[in-house]
């Protein structure tokens, strides 16, 4: 982490710590902004989250609860048909390891969903530790960097990744 001596410091004041990646900085700012919510909950306003915790927005809670956990199935016949027997033989150990990690991730996510569901039923809202949000944002940054590296190594022209707003800009330039 740039400019931050430890994760403890980031947890203590996420918005003031210089974190790597824009998603991490953005999430740290959201964490800090949520601390400024006023009210005691008795007048219809949200009560502030406990110190070191952030209340998840309802749309995020709904999304978490709506996701279906799945895991990799390394012996799926339809998937295996895509590869030669040589490739399957050479990668079977790595595929098995990846399947184990995938199943463990699925179980961890199901536990998280149970936690979210339980908190929502008990309290009517869900609070998570600030460190959870910071770690999640760091993971998102890392994943984006890895995806960018992967696509950069493929040498695919940028025009294949243009979204609608990029298309509009290109059309204006082309005129």
Descriptive account of the structure:
There is one protein chain. By secondary structure, the chain is mainly α. Helix content is 61%, strand content 3%. It has seven helices and two strands. The chain has helices spanning 7-12, 22-34, 58-66, 77-80, 85-123, 130-154, 164-174, and strands at residues 53-55, 127-129. The protein has a two-stranded antiparallel sheet. Helix 2 runs antiparallel to helix 6. 9% of the residues are buried. Mean pLDDT is 73; it is low at 1-20, 34-44 and 170-175.
Provide the fold topology:
Blueprint: H1 7-12, H2 22-34, E1 53-55, H3 58-66, H4 77-80, H5 85-123, E2 127-129, H6 130-154, H7 164-174
Antiparallel strand pairs: 1-2
Properties at a glance:
extended; 175 residues; disordered N terminus; 2 strands; disordered C terminus; single chain; two-stranded antiparallel ribbon; 3% strand; mainly alpha
Structural class: mainly alpha
Query: Percent range for helical residues?
Result: 55-70%
Distance between the termini: 45 Å
Write the element-wise H/E pattern from the N-terminal end onward: HHEHHHEHH
**Biggest beta sheet attributes:** 2 strands, antiparallel
Strand content: under 5%
Task: Give average pLDDT, whole number.
Answer: 73
Strand order of the largest sheet: 1-2
Number of strand elements: 2
Could you tell me the radius of gyration in angstroms? 22 Å
Sequence stretches where pLDDT stays below 50 over 5 or more residues:
1-20, 34-44, 170-175
Question: Which shape, going by the Cα principal axes?
Answer: extended
What count of helical segments does DSSP give?
7
